[in-house]
Amino acid sequence: MRYLIIGAGAVGGTVGGRLAQAGREVVLVARGRHLTALREHGLRLRVPEGESTHRLPAVDGPGPLGELRADDVLMLAVKTQDTVAALETWADVPVAGGGTAARRLPLVCLQNGVESARLALRRFRHVYGVCVWLPSTFVEPGVVSAAGTPLTGVLHLGRVPHGTDDTARRIAADLADARFEAPVVPDVARWQYAKLLGNLGNALEAVSGPVASEEAQALYARVRAEGEAVLDAAGIPYTGAAEQRAARGDKVTLVPLDGTPRGGGSSWQSLARGTGTIEADHLNGEIVLLGRLHGVPTPLNELLQHLANRFAREHRAPGSLPVAELVRLADEAVRQGG
Length: 338
Hints:
Elements: E1 2-6, H1 10-21, E2 25-29, H2 32-41, E3 43-47, E4 50-54, E5 58-59, E6 72-76, H3 83-90, H4 101-104, E7 106-109, H5 115-121, E8 126-133, E9 136-140, E10 143-146, E11 148-150, E12 153-159, H6 166-177, E13 180-181, H7 188-199, H8 201-208, H9 214-234, H10 241-248, E14 252-254, H11 266-273, H12 284-294, H13 299-313, H14 323-335
Helix pairs in contact: 8-11, 8-13, 9-12, 12-13
Protein name: 2-dehydropantoate 2-reductase N-terminal domain-containing protein
Domain Ketopantoate reductase N-terminal: 3-157
Pfam families: ApbA, ApbA_C
């Protein structure tokens, strides 16, 4: 199989680089300065065992590839807010032997949240979800890092909305050769919703810095409790902490990488890079949406969604709102009922 990494940033670049190291055929899809760096210097992947450079085909879309191959796998690794544009770009690309990508090829959503897979099912017949547990960083154009060892990440994989098949197992086998653990599960959404609860802290980290102090951790606990209440009210199952610990254990331990300070998570990185957008609408916003549908107040998640979007629009520095001020705003939002 040939893997087309649509969005070769932190997660996509790491997965693409590791697959290339394992001898799999990989094409990177990127844009702007990142694409230029990939074409001129290759993908530089920094991991605990050292830095490697991978001279891989790098394109800005399907045009340079022409007709796609029947054994292509589309791995969607853009942020959720960029999903619709990516789906529109790739859905109608012809595939050798007849048909289009949307009708014939597997689309694997390597993304946070749960919305992208739903969007993909509107256009693509064969959609696979992944619960992405992969600490990685976009360092600079052409350079990504992943500090996990002995495995780079754990990627639960399954069909959307549910089930497994031989395609999922073949993809998982390739990922396993590339230093990932990739359990094929019939209920991938259950893992993704559990990850969503953890990602509710992304906006908190983005606007106020690491969730390390007692004050920040207490606020995150309140934000997560809102999320759990919403999922319970909606009847949406999610894996518990014990099951997640059993699945992950100490398989991914972070180690310092020379010259590559570990920043924050994906939302923090979006602010640090000044992209102008952030994924809060599909993380905290997912909880807000479900809360409104099921009559559960979610003032804290609504506040974080609003602040994260404001920070992105105004190109504000990540972590620039003091935690004490955020807590004050949170208490006020609760008093006002959101």
